[in-house]
Amino acid sequence: MTPSTPSSDHRPSAQPAAVLFDLDGTLVDSERLWLDAIRARLALDGAAVSSAQLVEFEGLSSIEAAHALIEVGGLSARAAEVAADLEALTIDAFADRLSWVSGAEEALGHLRGEGIRIALVTSSTHRWVDAVAESLALGAFDVVVTADDVQHTKPDPEPYLQAFDLLGIDPGTCLVFEDSEVGVRAAVAAGSRVVQVRADLRATSGATACIPDLRPVTAAWVASVMALEPALP
Question: Is 213 a catalytic site residue?
Answer without folding.
Answer: no
